[in-house]
Amino acid sequence: MRIGVVEVGHWHAQGYIDRVVKLGLPIVAVSDRDPGTARQRASQLGCRAYTDCAELLDKEAPDFVFAHGIHCEMTDIADVLVEHGTPFVMEKPMGVDWRRLASVADKAEDKGLFAGVDLPARCYPLVRELLRLKASGELGRIISYSQRLFAGEPQRYRDWGVPWVLDPKQAGGGPLFNFGPHVIDLFLLLSGQEVHRVFCTSSRELHGLEIEDRSTVLLSTAEGGMASLEVGYVCPDAMYDQNVSLCTDSLYVSTSSFDTATVSFRDGRTSEVGAGGAGQALDYVAETLRRFEAGSPPVATVRDMCRALRVINAAVESAEALMPIALD
Questions:
Q1: Quick one: CA dihedral 100, 292, 15, 229, positive or negative?
Q2: From CA 250, how far away is CA 192, in angstroms rounded?
Q3: 172 in a structural domain
Q4: Could you count the other beta carbons within 10 Å of the beta carbon of residue 24?
Q5: Rounded distance, CA 141 to CA 223, Å?
Q6: Tens digits of residue pLDDT in 58-85
Q7: CA dihedral over 201, 204, 305, 100, signed as positive or negative
């Protein structure tokens, strides 16, 4: 399988490259909007460099592409990949406007194309166990879901050579676009419910940047499900802080780790998630390529990202209007 990597200047790109190399698969070409970055990465990998995604696809015809990009340009890149019929997985959030992304999802689905988005939280042991319980009917109806995902200082994006992340015109906003897809997608995935009301508050006081430091999003569904989601660049240095709690009419779980947890059932049973339970987190790149070769759907599709991005767009609107936004 011949692999292409698009927009290798993105801070997540090297992680994909390392995993593809570890799997022993050839990276035939890379591209980046910055010629120097493209040449440097290509030299390291011994492959060809391009500054344009479409040119890479035309000249190299890779079997599969791992794509990245500046948030405001991602939907256009995804559209190029779909038009070329190239199977791919792209970093989140795949754009800043869910309606534009929805048109790409429509095209991909019409073609039956393997078109995914990087939402690796779906591969965590706890999430896999909860999805197993959902499939068996044991998860129950979600009453309340909360998740916090805090990260360190935003200066790190300047240090990594991607200062555009701190520009709202290019990034769409702050951590809501960067981390929000993870927490919103998990609620949508586990609940299986459509969000009908969104309320969001955001703050810019900590770092004094144009983007938000922190956002809190409250979601409600017509079925009675509720979610409280927090994301932010609020930890010192490079710290991460996360916690998730899930309450259904069948069980409860609360943990600061997606690798180990105790699921408490309302009938008195408990289930331990960990080394003897759901096992280790799946390698997202390996799992993606395994699914592609098997003719299975991606871990998460472009349509899944559309649903999450629709909530993000509504959250931004809510924070600006200081009022809830209805999605009905």
A1: positive
A2: 15
A3: yes
A4: 6
A5: 9
A6: 999 999 999 999 999 999 999 999 999 9
A7: positive
Write out the two tokens for 79: 């559209």
> How confident is the prediction for the chain on average, in pLDDT?
96
| Closest alpha carbon to 92 in 302, 241, 235, 328 | 302
What tens digit of pLDDT does each residue of 171-200 get? 999 999 999 999 999 999 999 999 999 999
Stretch 206-216: mean pLDDT, rounded? 96
Name the 3-class secondary structure at 70.
Answer: coil
Residue 290 lies in a domain: no
Per DSSP, the chain holds a count of helices (H) and strands (E) of: 12, 15
Residues 109 and 153 in one domain: no
- Unique residue bearing structure tokens 């290509």: 42
Can you tell me the distance from the alpha carbon of 277 to that of 319, in angstroms, rounded to the nearest whole number? Answer: 40
97 and 139 co-located in one domain: no
Residue 184: what pLDDT?
Answer: 98
Among candidate residues 133, 16, 127, the one with its CA nearest the CA of residue 66: 16
On whether the CB atoms of residues 164 and 293 are closer than 8 A, the answer is: no
Domain count for the chain, please give it.
2
Phi, psi of 6 (to 5 degrees): -105, 135
